[in-house]
Amino acid sequence: MSEENFYENGLRFECQKCSACCRHDPGYVFLTQTDLDALVTETGLSEADFLEKYCTMIDIGGFKRISLIEKKNYDCIFWKDGCSVYQSRPVQCRTFPFWISSLEDKTDWDELALSCPGIGKGGIVSKEEIEKRIAERQKEPMLTV
Ligand code: SF4
Ligand code: SF4
Questions:
Q1: Which 3 state secondary structure label does DSSP give 41?
Q2: Cα-to-chain-centroid distance, residue 36
């Protein structure tokens, strides 16, 4: 099996609901326009008010992306004993941990397993399902300003 096809037979994953990907450590939740629209609808705010209340602009070297803000303890602003916007959570959250950046080779995947205890647990997620999630995340670019 070539290194780039290490997930040819699928990968074992079952979320352990540890919440590590939503809390405790600094990180970014970048938004697409579809994510932003869904969250604006979910919160009942205007887009301008939503951006003001829940978002921050992150400099990515030459341009900026819109990210959800974090609380002082680094929990996502929408973490309240679970994701309080679960039905409208951004594509970045919906597709985790099957991000292209962690599927380049097995080393990247194994590295992610150190922070995501669901990796290696539960049933097999098929190659087709993995690629569906990669495609879902790549369907629309993250918003830049
Ligand atoms: S870090 Fe992994 S196991 Fe924990 S909540 Fe996130 S996806 Fe689930
Ligand atoms: S939006 Fe929800 S799923 Fe995404 S990081 Fe925040 S709390 Fe977690």
A1: helix
A2: 14
What are 47-93's pLDDT values in tens digits? 999 999 999 999 998 899 999 999 999 999 999 999 999 999 999 99
| Ligand 1, atom 2: closest residue by C-alpha | 116
Write out residues with Cβ below 6 Å of ligand 2: 22, 29, 76, 78-79, 83, 85, 89-90, 93
What residues contact residue 103 under an 8 Å CB cut-off, 6+ apart?
7, 109, 130, 134
Using CA positions, which residue lies closest to atom 1 of ligand 1?
116
**pTM greater than the 0.85 cutoff:** yes
Nearest to 54 by CA among 71, 38, 41: 71
Distance 123 CA to ligand 2 centre (A): 23
**What angle do the packed helices 47-54 and 33-43 form, to 10 degrees?**
90
